[in-house]
Sequence to fold (304 residues):
Amino acid sequence: MEALFGPLQYAILPVFTFAILGFALGRIGEFSRQAAEGANQYIIGIAVPALQFRLISGVDFAGVEWDMIIAYLSVEFAIYGFGFIVMRYGFRVGPRESVLLAMTAAFPNHVYVVLPIAERLYGPSGVDPVASVIVFDVVLMFGGTIMIMEAIKGEQSPLAVLKDIATNRLIVVIALAFVWNYSGFLLHDGVAFFLDMATASATPVALFSLGVILSGNSLKSITGPVWVVVGLKNLLMPLLAVIMLGTFLNPSPAWEAPALLTYGAPSGVLAFVLGLKYGVKVESIAKAVILSTALSILTAAILA
Fold:
């Protein structure tokens, strides 16, 4: 029973509750879509940069099992690419929405689902593998998606695109965090406390905003793109993990279980956050995140 109710009680249900509250309060008119979009400006301007800097500046790269990271990123980017092709050419979704739906299919909610489950089930040693995966996800998947969105957001010259990327706050923070990590300097306790507080607010506020925006739409209409995203995230990605771990990957005991749990995590909310930032239709993304989170109760129980 612990295998099922542990993930449900300690991570998934509390995470899901933020979206439920947003949906309920949006339905009765206490929060509007405009309010949710305003909250997203805080997320993208303060909370996410704090999350990026806190994670990247603090990770110990000496303890990384690189074969596990490479395997994970290979699966993730394969699903990302396949998801984009299906959305863009199968469902004829617009290019920017296709990118973000593909990110939703590949990018997990490892900060607020996997980390607490791993710490609860495996102790402090279970946190390091998950934190390492998060860092590379934030840099490559999230950072790469920002670059793609900047490149296709309008008719711009290549030089203008490069300028936008180089001055994008989220990209700059990633670079600064790596510099700080390799400098060997420690964060001041006050700065670390601020970053921890801002980081802790990112996913709850994003999920609440997601619920508010969904409250203005019918949940009865679950379209093909939503089901494809959920199928890729909740079925294909965990299946590929089981196959790889049973064949050519040979992780240490400290890495195997947390890594497997990461593959089975539900869709993260950062694609939704980017959708609001770039003015992309987010209803399908929001529905996929909600449905993926609900179904991950089962996958987390199986993989934990």
